[in-house]
Design goal:
Keywords: Membrane, Transmembrane, Transmembrane helix. This protein is mainly alpha-helical. It has five helices and four strands; from the N terminus they run H-H-H-H-H-E-E-E-E. It has a domain of 156 residues.
Length: 311
């Protein structure tokens, strides 16, 4: 029994709104002051009003936090996609997107003697990597989850204060999450635009390379065709040239080295050729036998002569 009483005395009672007026009156009496019932009622009404207000604000903050969680979840799921919006091509993974360092502004420099003009360069802020922006959303969502511990019951001015402070933390965390989600989705949109341009440039480069290769192959084929035609023409020309020479050799007459008469064509029988008997002319002598197969020259004394068999 003693233990039961002790436990009851050490347990802090929870009072609802209907007990608030009696609690306030008891505190004031113990403090040595006694107020009227009307004053206590006014205090209780104001506490009730404040509780209602902060609980409404709590509900709004909770609803906004849920919306932030949903937006963050959708954004994290979206950046996992590698399908570009307007093309059927696949992009690289957004998580592998590198960051960019900040670029400081450079003022323009006018051209002067010996110095070329320099165009102005606008400042570019640093850009986090895709992995960093994803981590930012994840961390902000975790922070909002920890802050979202708002009380759902208000019975005193202390509760009003606690709920107000907790609501402020939730609002701050939700704003931070929304900001990180916006940064992620905006950068992801830029990434997809850049990926579309990169893939289009690669496709165009591949098309140009294919056209150049096709033109090269066609040029080689045309060169080979022309070379084959030229080789055939030259072969035909050589064949025609050889046939004409052979026919001319067979149909022509061969002059003797001594001149004066033409050797008739061979009969093809294999016998030796015997020149016809010379018709002697006056006024000249006979040249002694020479090396012309027994044929001698008879001069007529005027620069001419006749070939006759040597005696």
């Amino acid at each position: 029994m003693t233990d039961e009483i002790s436990n009851k005395n050490t347990t802090s009672p929870k009072y609802g709104k209907k007990h608030l007026a009696f609690l306030i009156a008891a505190v004031l009496i113990l403090a040595g002051g006694l107020v009227s019932v009307g004053a206590v009622s006014a205090y209780a009404k104001e506490t009730d009003r404040q509780c209602v207000a902060v609980l409404k604000e709590d509900a709004k903050a909770t609803k906004a936090a849920k919306a932030s969680f949903t937006s963050a979840s959708d954004a994290l799921e979206a950046v996992e996609s590698t399908t570009l919006p307007a093309e059927a091509e696949k992009s690289r993974k957004y998580a592998d997107r590198p960051g960019a360092e900040a670029v400081e502004a450079v003022p323009a420099v006018d051209a002067s003697e010996g110095v070329a003009a320099v165009a102005a360069v606008e400042a570019v802020p640093a850009r986090p990597s895709g992995a960093e922006l994803i981590a930012g959303v994840t961390d902000s969502g975790s922070a909002l989850g920890k802050a979202n511990t708002i009380l759902t019951e208000c019975t005193s001015r202390d509760d009003v204060t606690s709920i107000t402070a907790a609501t402020a933390k939730v609002k701050t965390a939700a704003k931070a999450l929304d900001a990180s989600v916006t940064a992620l989705t905006d950068d992801f949109a830029v990434f997809q635009t850049e990926e579309a341009a990169r893939i289009a440039a690669e496709i165009e480069a591949a098309r140009i390379a294919a056209e150049k290769e096709a033109a090269r192959v066609a040029a080689e084929a045309e060169a080979a065709r022309k070379a084959a035609e030229e080789a055939a023409r030259q072969a035909a020309a050589r064949q025609n040239s050889g046939g004409g020479s052979s026919g001319s050799s067979r149909g022509g007459t061969k002059k003797s080295s001594g001149g004066g008469y033409s050797k008739p064509p061979s009969s093809g029988g294999g016998g030796s050729y015997t020149p016809p008997a010379p018709r002697p002319r006056g006024g000249g002598g006979v040249v002694p036998p020479g090396s012309n197969n027994g044929v001698c020259w008879t001069s007529n004394g005027h620069g001419g002569g006749t070939q006759v068999p040597c005696p």
